[in-house]
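FORM 12-B: Structure-to-Sequence Request
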């Protein structure tokens, strides 16, 4: 998300992204809990639906900013939360009786390498919105932190999880504004990225998953889940849940290729640059301020940008024009102050 005092030059996708189970299967002899694989498979399907919609938006077939607001935004966060919750469950299932270091480190290396590859690819593809701490980065760090907390009782993990989730509402500070600390998640304004999943609040979902796994184990629910044999109808979901990292790495290139091919056959309708500007501004602004402020702020910015030579079209094509960027920064600061004045006290 971006500070409304600076106009977002491009729409950013919400961090809805994907996950892989960071752990190997539970201890040999205990039996794999197939319903968890199915749940992970359902989350993968939901993720693919969200990313396909984002790809359609990116190529101009849907209105800009659609997937960053409203129901799509909630959908994206539910997907990410469900994956991270299952990461916490998997940590407990795989290592509650003692950390199995070899499979743990092998899986950690796989997730870490995949996270690094995502950062590298997006750095070249979308340098202004590249993924420097996305969901795979979160999984890698959460796995390390989670192992350290495995011995904590369920209620303590539950309390810690709720604290981590609520921390961004109370603990944001300029102390965390440095790019080197953006991974923490407590900067006053979230940085731009196509997949931003910092420790606060997202590690909280992992802690809740760990707490739930311990409670399920204590109540006998895990044993009942382990004994359930799913119908054959769920086999594709189960298979996908067992190969979630590979699915994540491959699904977006495939979807992007399909949407690109479709765009060559049926090109999208050229968008109105002013409408795109306004929607992108609203989507970014709503990450940090309320609807009333963002309506006033973005309307003000659009009015003044249209008064610049060439208007919105010139701004969108300006690239790294430092002079134009400075003018827009001044406009954004002025409009931010005006919007605050318009709000009821």
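FORM 12-B RESPONSE
SEQUENCE OUT:
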């Amino acid at each position: 998300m971006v500070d409304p005092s600076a106009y977002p030059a491009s729409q950013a996708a919400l961090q809805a992204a994907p996950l892989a189970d960071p752990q190997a299967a539970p201890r040999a002899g205990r039996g794999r809990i197939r319903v968890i694989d199915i749940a992970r498979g359902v989350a993968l399907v939901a993720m693919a639906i969200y990313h396909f919609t984002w790809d359609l938006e990116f190529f101009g077939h849907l209105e800009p900013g659609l997937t960053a607001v409203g129901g799509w935004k909630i959908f994206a966060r539910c997907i990410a939360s469900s994956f991270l919750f299952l990461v916490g469950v998997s940590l407990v299932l795989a290592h509650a009786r003692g950390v199995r270091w070899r499979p743990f480190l092998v899986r950690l290396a796989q997730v870490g390498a995949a996270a690094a590859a995502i950062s590298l690819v997006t750095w070249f593809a979308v340098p202004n919105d590249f993924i420097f701490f996305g969901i795979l980065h979160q999984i890698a760090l959460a796995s390390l932190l989670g192992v350290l907390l495995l011995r904590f009782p369920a209620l303590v993990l539950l309390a810690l999880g709720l604290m981590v989730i609520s921390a961004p509402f109370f603990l944001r500070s300029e102390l965390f504004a440095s790019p080197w600390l953006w991974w923490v998640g407590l900067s006053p304004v979230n940085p731009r990225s196509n997949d931003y999943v910092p420790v606060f609040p997202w590690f909280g979902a992992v802690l809740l998953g760990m707490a739930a796994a311990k409670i399920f184990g204590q109540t006998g629910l895990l044993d009942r889940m382990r004994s359930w044999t799913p119908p054959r109808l769920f086999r594709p979901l189960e298979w996908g849940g067992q190969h979630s990292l590979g699915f994540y790495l491959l699904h977006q290139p495939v979807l992007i290729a399909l949407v690109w091919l479709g765009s060559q056959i049926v090109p999208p309708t050229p968008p109105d640059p002013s409408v795109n500007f306004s929607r992108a501004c609203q989507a970014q602004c709503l990450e940090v301020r309320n609807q009333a402020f963002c309506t006033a702020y973005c309307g003000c910015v659009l009015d003044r940008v249209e008064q610049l030579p060439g208007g919105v079209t010139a701004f969108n094509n300006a690239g790294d024009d430092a002079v134009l960027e400075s003018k827009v920064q001044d406009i954004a600061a002025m409009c931010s102050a005006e919007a605050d004045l318009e709000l009821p006290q």
